[in-house]
Design brief:
It is built from 17 helices and no strands. By secondary structure, it is mostly helical. The protein has two domains: 5-178, Up-down Bundle (Growth Hormone, Chain: A), CATH 1.20.1250; 196-375, Growth Hormone, Chain: A, CATH 1.20.1250. GO terms for molecular function: transmembrane transporter activity.
Length: 387
């Protein structure tokens, strides 16, 4: 099993409750619009802040972890999360809610961005398995938050997020007492830009874009209960993403060399991504069963691939410290895609469906070539495998 599970369990659990607190806002959007008398764009900004925070904060988080070790960085993430969610739950105005959401969002890059260094500097050896577990629980929390939130009041949702993050945050805080500071002999810490970032860019941006345009596209195609179907598809994608990250992280660890597995996942992602696109544009008849299966499978294979590519980006680094900077750069590239692609390409699903399909086909073909063409891992990788 993974060494130092004393840290891995609370680290993954905190990723879960952070994702839960983040995406519980998605089904609350109509209520928040009414409560704060704010436009839709202003409420959607509250959800998007986590992505913008990753763009701005991922690389600084990676360098900070390399220089100071994971304990201080993760404890700062815990503090920002709890304080931000507490402000959010107390907010009586949009402005104060926005402040709380900004504070909580700043914790996200500190928790996930430098995952490559967090795992290695904490003594966790089976990094593919551990990466899959952390990313999988993050997505499972996002899925569960979006499913549970509609069944509670807004106030109950927001305070539940505070309590969960406080309790699990205390658990993680105490576990970090067993993690030492970064060793002084890490050597030069530098950013290693790799082609694996393309995988993160494409998978993340397309996943978010599908979630944002599915209801609109299905409405345009006169699908019955299009809004409800679109929400279900988003939940299925998140659930598939959680299963894919954990399952293929484990499988990649068991196989040792993940390159053949990533080639297979790249091809499968291409098939299911284009299948989803053809259903949303009406090239294929959008039956409920076909939509459910296609979006679930897209979530499973794409996020399994995303997780292994993230670990491959870390393996390209020359040291444990640089591994965190590499994964931070990967996360930054992923969220740049999330910030750009849905707004630029998403509207084409209705206005220019052929262009929508062509652009997505070009992007996924380029990404699918990465496991076939990327360089092998750097010399630090053998040191990261179990003895």
């Amino acid at each position: 099993m993974v060494k130092n599970t004393r840290l891995l369990a609370p680290y993954a659990a905190f990723a879960f409750v952070l994702g839960f607190a983040w995406f519980m806002l998605a089904p609350l959007v109509p209520g928040l619009i009414q409560h704060f008398k704010a436009p839709l764009a202003a409420i959607l900004l509250l959800i998007s802040l986590y992505g913008y925070a990753m763009i701005v904060g991922a690389l600084p988080a990676g360098y900070w972890t390399a220089r100071s070790g994971p304990a201080v960085v993760l404890r700062t993430s815990i503090g920002l999360t709890v304080v931000g969610l507490f402000i959010r739950a107390l907010a009586g105005s949009y402005g104060l809610f926005l402040v709380g959401q900004i504070v909580a969002a700043l914790a996200y890059p500190l928790l996930i961005g430098p995952i490559g260094s967090v795992l290695r500097l904490s003594g966790i050896v089976r990094t593919k398995l551990a990466t899959g577990l952390v990313i999988g629980t993050l997505f499972f929390g996002m899925a569960l938050g979006s499913l549970i939130a509609p069944h509670l009041s807004s106030a109950a949702d927001l305070w539940l997020a505070v309590v969960l993050n406080l309790v699990v945050g205390i658990w993680l805080w105490l576990a970090l007492g067993h993690v030492s500071d970064a060793p002084r002999n890490l050597g030069r810490v530098r950013l290693v830009v790799s082609s694996w970032w393309i995988v993160g860019f494409v998978v993340s941006s397309v996943s978010v874009m599908y979630g944002s345009v599915s209801s609109t596209a299905l409405t345009h195609l006169h699908v019955v209960n299009a809004a409800a179907v679109g929400g279900l598809l988003s939940s299925l994608t998140f659930l598939g993403s959680a299963v894919g990250a954990a399952a293929f992280g484990w499988l990649g660890q068991a196989r040792g060399e993940s390159r053949p597995l990533q080639r297979m996942l790249g091809v499968l992602t291409l098939i299911f991504l284009l299948g989803c696109a053809m259903l949303l544009t009406g090239v294929l008849s959008p039956s409920h069963a076909g939509l459910d299966v296609m979006f679930l499978m897209f979530g499973i294979v794409s996020n399994g691939w995303y997780t292994l590519a993230l670990e491959s980006a870390a393996a390209r680094a020359q040291s444990a410290g640089s591994a965190g900077v590499a994964t931070a750069g990967y996360s930054m590239a992923s969220n740049i895609g999330v910030a750009i692609l849905p707004s630029l390409v998403g509207p084409l699903v209705v206005s220019a469906p052929s262009a929508f399909l062509i652009i997505l086909a070009m992007l996924i073909i380029i990404a699918a070539l990465v496991p076939f063409l990327a360089k092998t891992a750097g010399p630090s990788e053998p040191q990261q495998q179990p003895a």
